[in-house]
Amino acid sequence: MKLTLSRKNLLGISLFITLVVTLPLNIYLIFLLSSPGTGKNVKILDLREGYSLKKIAGELKRSRIISSEWLFILYARLQGVDDKVKAGAYQFNDGMKPPNILHRLITGEVYNLRFAVPEGYSIYQIALLLENRGLFRREAFLAQCFNRSLLAELGIKGPTIEGYLYPSTYNITPHTTEADLIRGMVSQFKKRFSPEMGIKAKMLHMDTNEILTLASMVEKEAVSPAERPLIASVFHNRLKRKMPLQSDPTAVYRSRAFAGKISRRDIQSDSPYNTYKISGLPPGPIGNPGIEAINAVLSPAKTKYLYFVAKLDGTHCFSTTLNEHNRAVHKYLRSGAAVAESSEPTAPEYRNDYPVIKSGVDSGPVSP
């Protein structure tokens, strides 16, 4: 018995075959060309080393970043990149299309926050910035700055990390710890503090900690970058003569941030960093200087200056003798600014409210 197919049956079979072939293809194309949302659903996914493509696709589906786990796997395999996905923390949103998501995964466009450390900021100021950005708790960061094990690991002999946190822009990922960030910042400092700079320090009969201590003072005092070598020369000249350095920022270190003004009470404080009360350098840096301030200390201007007082335009008037300095104080501070009661008048009107931020100019953002 012969079986014959009617035209109607042939049309039905043809339609069935068309649906079987084209419907999945259309679903697949729609998946690739559309997104499950508008972009308002933002997720940071931590994709660890060793995660399979299936596990990654599952994480994306559970987070409502993709609409289909198995179609995403199929797409990755058809592209031949299912084994090229890189581990890391990624930020996705539900407005992204699967090709964009996969591209981010195979190129390793990991999520990070950029954190800029201003020149001259102390560990206390950096800790506050980190807390205000919601990155770390202030106390937790400061605890690592005093962590003796970490200091020993990094080869730092001082009681804190102060002075060694190089001012630059850093990348902070969800996995970055306070100690990781400190390691990255110290590593950047070591890259910038060249062997030649170490030789210059020895020629000045100063170790790295002393160079950074003096550079941190120069950084706080200088408003105009061009004056750094001049200010450094004043401090060097005073050290040679065994004169007290009488630097305003040292009087308020560890009590508050220096913002240009100090009081008579500050000058009379018994802080071991207060150069109105101690002779020579403070026991350590009062901030984290940039490379220009360090270079100014290593190569100071050749002057006989022993004094400087702030002028109204933010620059300073430099003097060689006390009489010259007194005249400059009278000229530039006659508006009534408080002058400390000491044998040598000083100018508590230095301004450095807006530190320079190094936004990766040296070598780009640094990942701790």
Strand and helix layout:
Elements: H1 7-33, E1 42-47, H2 53-62, H3 69-78, E2 88-93, H4 98-107, E3 113-116, H5 123-132, H6 138-145, H7 148-153, E4 169-172, H8 178-192, H9 195-203, H10 208-221, H11 228-240, H12 248-252, H13 264-267, H14 291-298, E5 307-310, E6 316-319, H15 322-332
Antiparallel strand pairs: 1-2, 3-4, 5-6
Q: Give the C-alpha Rg.
A: 31 Å
Low-confidence stretches: 335-364
The secondary-structure element order is HEHHEHEHHHEHHHHHHHEEH
Mean pLDDT: 83
How many β-strand runs?
6
The span between the termini is 81 Å
Largest sheet: 2 strands, antiparallel
* Number of helices, where a helix is a run of at least 4 consecutive DSSP H or I residues: 15
User: Order of strands in the sheet with the most strands?
Assistant: 1-2
Envelope shape: elongated
**How many domains?**
3
Range of strand content: 5-15%
- The SS-based structural class is mainly alpha
Roughly how much helix do the residues carry, as a percent range?
Answer: 40-55%
Task: Spell out the key features of this protein.
two-stranded antiparallel ribbon, Dna Ligase, domain 1, about 375 residues, mainly alpha
Task: Summarize the structure in words.
The chain is mainly alpha-helical. It has helices at residues 7-33, 53-62, 69-78, 98-107, 123-132, 138-145, 148-153, 178-192, 195-203, 208-221, 228-240, 248-252, 264-267, 291-298, 322-332, and strands spanning 42-47, 88-93, 113-116, 169-172, 307-310, 316-319. It has three domains: 31-107, 2-Layer Sandwich (Dna Ligase, domain 1); 113-192, no CATH class; 206-332, no CATH class. It is 43% helix and 8% strand. Strands 1-2 form a two-stranded antiparallel ribbon. β5 (307-310) and β6 form a beta hairpin. The protein is elongated and about 120 Å long. Residues 335-364 have low confidence and may be disordered.
